[in-house]
Amino acid sequence: MNAAASKPASHLTRTRLLSILAALAILLIVCAAAGALFGSAHISLARAFSDPTSPDHAIFFGARLPRVLMGVIVGAMLAAVGTALQALVRNPLAEGGILGISGGGALGAILALVMSAKLGGGEAAVPLCAFGAALLSTVAVYRLAMVDGQLEPFTLLLVGVIFNAFWGAAIMLVNSVVNFYYAHSILFWLMGSLEAPTYREAAMVAALGLAGFAVLMFRARDLNLLSLGDESAAELGVDVDRLRRTIFVSTSVMIGAAVSVSGIISFVGLIVPHTLRLVFGADHRLLLPASLIGGAAFMVAADLVARVAIAPAEIPVGAITALCGGPFFIYMLRREGRRPLSL
Amino acid sequence: MTTTSRDTAAAMRASAIHAGYPGVPVLHGVSIEVAAGEMLAIVGPNGAGKSTLLKVLGGSMKPDAGSVELFGRPLASIDRREFARTVASVGQENAVAFRFTVLEIVLMGRAPHLGALRFESPRDLEIACAALDRFDLRDLAARHVQELSGGERKRVFLARALAQEPKIALLDEPTAFLDLKHVAEIFARFRELCTERGMAVVATLHDLNAAALYADRVLLLADGAAVAYGTPVEVLTVENLRRVYETEVYVGRNPSTGALIILPAALPNARG
Fold first, then answer.
1. Which of A90, A236, A277 is the closest to B112 by Cβ?
2. pLDDT tens track for A174-192
3. Domain of A119: which CATH number?
4. Cα–Cα nearest to B215, from B201, B199, B196
5. Considering the entire predicted model, what is its pTM?
6. Could you tell me which of B8, B12, B1 has the C-alpha nearest to residue B56?
7. Is B93 touching A (CB cutoff 8 A)?
8. Cα–Cα distance between A222 and A247 in angstroms, integer?
9. What is the dihedral of CA A37, A38, A44, A49, to 10 degrees?
10. Do B107 and A92 touch (CB under 8 A)?
11. Full set of structural domains in chain B with CATH
């Protein structure tokens, strides 16, 4: 209809949204297929399907598929949460792991695990406590980083560092007073892993994740407006306080759910949104679902590397994401320092 | 102080506004009225309360006393999205956190007209493109706002306000740090909007000559109170300005157009 409208990247259209998501979905399918087919052992897909008693069947359906499924669920949630948190604090360096929110969630999960063994509690206690502790961390980090009504980017990151150290110490404290049986689980939470979830757990976590994501999607346009600042967003009709509370709760539900099955997996929520934003632009109506799919693909790929890199031994997947994420974070920090508004 | 009462319903009316920050009262009973199609300039020295008054009018600051009415309705009774469809504000700072394109920023002005999950319709795009055209931004549509100059960026935010299709525009120093050409163009555009759409414009201005040249009415503020309120000729007098700015001024006429000219007058021994 006119020159500006016909330029492909000048704004988001429904067609552009759907074609990008379709392309990312294909990438995810490729990653998931690779994740299911390859691993430390060679398996025959034909035998896995034809012979239910074969080891191939047991590996494919009992180990690989649940693992890929968990990677999809956890990666999707962490990346989407990263995108939402970055929009909330207007800083591309924000992420659940870096801000200490995952750490809080992990402490909540560990306490719930130890307590429910002593006092008896439902299996919902672990994700519920992880959610509560994550929410508490989110609100605390946000409030502490607020200086004169302004969210200071570097104060925010420093508060995150301190929270990480604090939660880590608290987890170590719990670790040293409980018996050996729990020590392994605690290590698992600290390292981050996609090991040994049941289909039941996976379904529960996926349901919580989808609920949280639906809320985020509903607020995607408001998150765009928030990029202009609280005051401008309010002048465009956004109830900023309510938006903030909604994002606090929905991201905490998602982080709590993810942490309760996979522990602390950092940097996924940083690398994936940043890369997608660089390629596809900043509109959160695209960025949120793109992070969901892209995060799933990234996590499945990272987990495949974790399983085959030093096979038959295995690297915790959280170590892989942190090994990629650390240098990536430094690179972004340097970039941010130079051009404060450019990401 | 001059006040003329008019029969036409005011687009926006503020009565006896007292406002400020905790422990720091800024405004002491300021009243204004702006009619559709009219441009009101708020002038006065630094710290006079110009921006605070604009914040009260824009709803982002609650007055401690007094009332604001929008087309005869109290501000408190108007839903925030409806308010955003009626009143557009452009502040002094226009930082954007992520790399949005110019067109994306301008399309954000359509948000108060759209449901949460609705995409912009072709009509929304048309409105946004017309706003780009009016501020001569069409060629920059696909650029990221971070790459633009200060003047270009200011125009992007004015275009965004225009895309809201407001009946009232509140502009905080719209031409600060801009060169002569852009100052003239921005005021020309808003004068057009006043005439074409009956838009009411309220702008805080440091530039007294711009206020004299473009505004229908001027409110001269000092220490949070109105010193004078009326037409530029009534308000921008040597006596008023000398009193408020505490310096000597010259007020004359442009010999070719007859427009008011306001200049600082050199003190007798300023040049030795």
1. A236
2. 888 877 777 777 777 777 7
3. 1.10.3470.10
4. B201
5. 0.89
6. B12
7. yes
8. 11
9. -30
10. no
11. 1-71+167-247 (3.40.50.300), 96-165 (no CATH)
